[in-house]
From TrEMBL:
Residues 454-494 are annotated as: Disordered. Pfam families: G5, PG_binding_4, VanW. This is VanW family protein. It comes from Clostridium yunnanense. The lineage of its organism: Bacteria, Bacillati, Bacillota, Clostridia, Eubacteriales. Residues 461-471 have a biased composition (Pro residues). Keywords: Signal. Residues 380-459 form the G5 domain. Residues 472-494 have a biased composition (Low complexity).
Amino acid sequence: MSNEVRKNKKLKLVVAGTVAVVVIGLSGAGVYAMTVKNQVAKWDNKIYQGVKVNDVDLSGKTKEEAVKLLEDSFSNTIKQKKLVVKALDQNFELDYSNLNPQFNVQEMAQKALEEGKKLSLFQKNNIIKNGTNKNLPLEFKYDDSKIKAFEQQIESKINKDPIDAKISINGGKINITDDQIGRKVNAEELDKLIKTNINGKIEQQAVVEAPIQEAKPKYQKAELEKIDGKISTFSTSFATSNEGRSANVTLASKFINAKLLMPGDTFSYNEALGERTIARGYKDAAIFVGDKVEQGIGGGICQVSTTLYRAAMRAGIRSTERYNHSMPTSYSPVGLDATVYWGSLDYKFKNTYNFPVYIESYTSNKNVYVNFYGSASGMGGKTYELFADTLAKYEPTISKVDDSSLMEGQTQWDKQPVTGYKVKSYLVTYQDGKEIARENIATDNYQKVNGVMKVGTKKATPPPAAPPAPPATTQNPPATQTSTPPTTPPATNQ
């Protein structure tokens, strides 16, 4: 046999062997792949090895089994948990069962089941054999509105309102009661602490210390004791006022009495008196409306605001809002008054001293009095007085109009004339009785009102004519003669 033939035969044997090996290999790989596929298929409805939810191992569990295990481990157990808030010597327990606690168990069991299911066949098989390190977190939810009720329970037991010191002055004698410190839970901070410590960790029991603050009274005895005497006074008379106006002056005086202003406080006259209504006790009385005097509810209260203004300025307390009347008043020189009107014009001042100021106001014998009390020693020997200088005077004109309803020679004012003024007010400061400063306060204008006088034109009616005298008769008339009755006078208009 030739060498060439032997070579061909040998090559055929090698090829045949190789094909046989390949066929056998392919057959084995197919069998292995099928085995792996069958193995992986057994886990289609099971959670792969090493998959956890909140550290709970769910390997090999079906979704239903995982849900039950998670509910037993968390949903049911969490209801036994409590959060404790310590406040002073009291403990307050918040039961989780009252919060309607919920875990997303169904959602996370499904995610655990789906973990690794989108990988390749052999990757899945690798996880089944060797496991994975996947720990899925549960989401914890609760009813936030329940916490507010719990916090309010704590506040109701712990909070204690402070008690203000009170001052009363009777006949110049000053009496001051004690104050008491209160306490208050810092509600915002407590809410943050509670919500930060509420969680789904079963083994963790939280204890929270309630943040409690002192609640200081607005009026403290130590501060009120700085009031040691009267620092100013002023009064005006309302002796000529009618009943309605007198009632309004008395009522307004009561509304501003015993007002206490701490350093930095602002006083509002309108706020102190409130809206002027019949229901609040105000009466009808004369008020200025433009250039006329009309009846209105609360007429007369501007006399009290003017008296208050004068007393405040004597105490060296400047106005933050103040208006003069449209026309001069009978109870105050021009430039030294203060008018108000509900909803628009107010009289306000601010206590700029470093001590409290107490206002005393009352009426007696048709006089209204306003006294300011403060630190008499803190005034440093200073006193104050308000003055006004006339810059211009505007005389009104008087016109006359005929009026047929008035008799000739009679006159009557249709509009009373009022003189107008322009004045400048200033505050003088005295130190131990000597002037040391002069401060411009305001320039005020008061309108003039031209007078109108009605002059009568009606003529007097002449008296009626006397009736004629009866005719003379004889002393002894004939027996047959009869007397003639007197004639009745004609009727006349009187």
